Predict the 3D structure of the following.
Amino acid sequence: MSGFIDFIRKQGVVGLAVGFILGGAVSKVVSALVTDIINPILGLALGAAGDLKTAAVSVGSVKILYGDLISVLIDFFVIAFVVYFGVKWLKLDKLDKKE
C-alpha cells in the first residue's frame, strides 16, 4: 500500500485528477455559453432562425449542415482560449521549467 501512495505522490496523480475535473467543469460552462448565447446571435446573423446548429446550404437535393461544425469550432476555440489564459494567469506554464 505504501508503494501505491508513493506513486501517487511522485507522479502528481492528485493534481492530474483535479485538473481533469476542473477541465470538465470549464468545458460544460463554455459549452453552455456557446450554445445558449453565442450560437443564437450568430444564427440570427447567418439567417438560421436563431440557432446556429440549423444553418445549412441546399445544393440540389443535398443539405450541407455547416452550422454544427461552426458551433463545435467556436466551442473548441473558447475552451482553448480559457485554458491558455488560465494556465498563464496561474503561472502553471513555469512549473516544469528548471531555472
In short: The CA atoms of residues 32 and 75 lie 9 Å apart. DSSP finds three helices and two strands in the chain.
